[in-house]
Design goal:
The chain is an alpha+beta fold and 367 residues long. The chain contains twelve helices and 15 strands.
Length: 367
């Protein structure tokens, strides 16, 4: 049975569990909000199912309970930060604060991060910059998931990236994607639900295509668009890992590995819109682009054309009262509740639907 629980109750529960593990209050609240926000956006693969993974890493010391960030290099518009193997969300939130502050001074900023960890959804952070009048690009490397094009051993991460931009009266535009055919979390989510994954997502340990999520976890996630996805992941590792002085390639460790430090690296580029364009003129131009796109002639299968970030906004409105968690995720939260002496949030049991894992809907522009 699946469970429905209010977002606020899930936030409070998650914060309480993290505080019980020794995470400071503001950091616990931030990490909780990133997980629940992912659920609200419809990205359960980056939501509550990850809380047990994070807690396991805190307990072994692979992730430090108290995040201590040090500055390695500071030229004004450019910084390199060392996260000290702390909580990835806390480190990245600090990077965004610095990135926006320095872009407002210099017009543009670059913040490199080394020795961080998994930070959840990149869009959570780029949206923060866009809401403050900046355009932001955030990329990260990740633990090995795909093989180089022509190879059969995984050595390159999904290495996701996000771009967000203010959109005048239309809010915020934001994209967030991995360079694989699918984010690896969606494969873990399929395994939790006991459902097959679509063809084209993954291969097994022998390199043969598979629709079995368990075989995919032991095997390879395939790159999006064939070799294009591979070269994009490779170059984002140059930016996020090599350039920042962090781990790269198969040295990066993922959040589902409880005992080893992650070594993930990130790079944040931030542009102050007001430094490059008149804000009112920019707003009018971006609104015109959005309106022209939304009113473009539709394909026969489409009910409505959406722009980047709009699907998540619609999902957040739909899920604002109740978030659905799989039976497996709920069971893992119940175990954490017992271990941490924290009360489970209120929830309603429902029959678990056979839910489609492919993100695009008939109301979304095809990628």
């Amino acid at each position: 049975m699946a469970h429905l629980s209010p977002p606020g109750a899930l936030r409070a529960f998650t914060s309480a569990v993290l505080r019980a593990e020794g995470v400071p209050d503001p950091d616990a609240d931030l990490l909780a909000d990133t997980l629940v926000t992912a659920e609200l956006w419809g990205h359960a693969s980056h939501g509550m199912l990850r809380l047990p993974w994070y807690v396991a890493r805190l307990r072994t010391g692979a992730t430090q309970r108290v995040t201590r960030i040090t500055t390695i290099r500071d030229t004004g518009a450019l910084m390199v930060l060392d996260g000290g193997h702390g909580i990835g969300q806390v480190i990245t939130h600090h990077a965004v604060s610095q990135g926006v502050e320095r872009a407002k001074i210099h017009g543009v900023s670059a913040i490199g991060v080394r020795n961080s960890g998994h930070f959840g959804t990149a869009a959570y952070f780029t949206r923060q910059a866009a809401e403050q009048g900046c355009i932001a690009l955030l990329c990260t490397n990740a633990s090995p998931a795909m093989a180089p094009w022509g190879g059969k051993r995984k050595s390159i991460g999904t290495n996701p990236w996000s771009i967000a931009a203010p959109a005048g009266d239309r809010g915020v535009l934001v994209m967030d994607l991995a360079n694989t055919a699918v984010a690896r979390g969606k494969v873990y989510l399929a395994a939790e639900r006991g459902t097959a994954i679509p063809p084209g997502w993954a291969a097994d340990a022998d390199g043969d295509p598979t629709t079995d999520p368990r075989a995919a976890i032991e095997g390879l996630i395939l790159p999006m668009a064939g070799p294009k996805g591979y070269v994009m992941s490779f170059m984002f590792d140059v930016l996020a890992g090599v350039l920042t002085g962090s781990a790269f390639g198969d040295q990066v460790v993922g959040p589902y590995e409880p005992k080893q430090t992650s070594g993930a690296g990130h790079l944040l580029l931030t542009i102050d819109v007001a430094a490059m364009a008149d804000p009112a003129e920019y707003a009018a131009r971006v609104e015109a682009l959005i309106d022209a796109t939304r009113t473009a002639p539709k394909a026969s299968w489409a009910h409505k054309i959406l722009v980047p970030g709009e699907l998540e906004d619609r999902n957040a409105e739909r899920n604002s009262r109740q978030i659905e968690l799989t039976a497996t995720t709920w069971a893992s939260l119940a175990e954490l509740a017992a271990e941490s002496n924290v009360a489970l949030p209120p929830a309603e049991e429902v029959s678990q639907p056979a839910e489609e894992l492919v993100t695009p809907s008939t109301e979304e522009v095809p990628a």
